[in-house]
Structure formats: structure tokens, C-alpha cells
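sry for the spam today, last one i promise. C-alpha cells for design, 201 residues
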């Protein structure tokens, strides 16, 4: 049991060090040597736990998404109205970005190009499981016309697209609009975009 706990602690130390280094140097510039130095782990330990550099970045990517998804899921599935749930989806995501700027920046940077190409299937699977939960919550509201019926891909583009665009700008230094105000404005706009017969235009 102690060995398992220590192994888990070591993995966390490596991922924490990697996140810090990514924030300082960017995803493409972080090396195994830097990760070992920052975390205090040996090269052998790093490879034992994660396989290689890409494996570390994938583990950090998944851990970051898990943190974000869990908060969003908890906020959305308890909502008793379509409006409350859709706004919670957007509001909670931007709230997470504000609280976790290093992780959010890492997610956006790591999502570009072919950095995590070996893990495409795994990434699609855990993202798919999250969206399955959200769509399951949305289903009854769509059936009643309280959320407009669209192809699944369209919901992601319409509901999360504006939040992603603002998040990227905010993380890049755009601060003319406070995050708190932006959350309210964007969440309300998204609801107007997908709300059915109960939406107020």
C-alpha cells in the first residue's frame, strides 16, 4: 500500500513539475532532463511511470481535462431547467479557466498540431464520455423543444465556441473585459443561441 501511495505521489510530482515548466517554456520546449530536475525524479522513474515525454504530456492533458470536466458535469447535471444547465456549462468552464490558467493554456497549446497524435483514440474516448453525460442531460429538454434540435457537433461549436475564443484571448493577455462579466455575457448569449421555446431573445 505504501509503495502504491509513493508511486502515485511521484507521478503527481512529475506532472506538477511538467505543468510548471510548460508555463515557463512552452510545451514544445520542455525536456525530460528539465522535468527530472524540477521534480527530483530520476530518468528511470519518469520513463517507468509515463513511458516517454509524450506520455507525460498526455497524462497531464488528461488530468487537466478531468479536472475541468468534473466541475462542469457537476454543475450541469443538477440543473432543473434548460437555461440553468446551458448557462452553467459555459459559466463553469470559464470559471475553471480563471482558476486554472496554467492548465487551460496547456490544454490549448497541446491541442494544436500532432503533439499527442499517439493518443488520439484515448482523447476522443474520454471527451466522448463527458459529452455523452451532457447530451443525456440535454435529451429531455431537446425532446420538449426547450433546447433546439441540432446535430451533436453543432452543440459543441455553438455552446463552447464563444467560451473557447474568449478564454484564448484572456489567457493571451486580453483583460479589457473582466472574466466575471464575460462569463455572464457569454453564458446568456449561448443560451439565446440554443434555447428553444423557453428562450428569451
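last one done:
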Amino acid at each position: 500500500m505504501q509503495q502504491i501511495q509513493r508511486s502515485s505521489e511521484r507521478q503527481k510530482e512529475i506532472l506538477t513539475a511538467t505543468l510548471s515548466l510548460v508555463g515557463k517554456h512552452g510545451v514544445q520546449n520542455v525536456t525530460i532532463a528539465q522535468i527530472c530536475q524540477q521534480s527530483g525524479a530520476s530518468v528511470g522513474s519518469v520513463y517507468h511511470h509515463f513511458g516517454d515525454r509524450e506520455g507525460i504530456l498526455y497524462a497531464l492533458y488528461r488530468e487537466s481535462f478531468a479536472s475541468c470536466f468534473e466541475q462542469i458535469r457537476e454543475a450541469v447535471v443538477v440543473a432543473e431547467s434548460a437555461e440553468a444547465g446551458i448557462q452553467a456549462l459555459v459559466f463553469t468552464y470559464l470559471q475553471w479557466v480563471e482558476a486554472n490558467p496554467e492548465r487551460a493554456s496547456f490544454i490549448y497549446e497541446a491541442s494544436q498540431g500532432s503533439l499527442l497524435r499517439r493518443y488520439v483514440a484515448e482523447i476522443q474516448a474520454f471527451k466522448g464520455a463527458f459529452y455523452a453525460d451532457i447530451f443525456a442531460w440535454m435529451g429531455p429538454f431537446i425532446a420538449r423543444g426547450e433546447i433546439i434540435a441540432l446535430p451533436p457537433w453543432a452543440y459543441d461549436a455553438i455552446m463552447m465556441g464563444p467560451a473557447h475564443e474568449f478564454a484564448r484571448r484572456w489567457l493571451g493577455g486580453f483583460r479589457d473585459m473582466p472574466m466575471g462579466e464575460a462569463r455572464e455575457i457569454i453564458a446568456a448569449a449561448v443560451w439565446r443561441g440554443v434555447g428553444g421555446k423557453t428562450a428569451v431573445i
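Residues 165 and 171 are 10 Å apart (CA to CA). ok im logging off now
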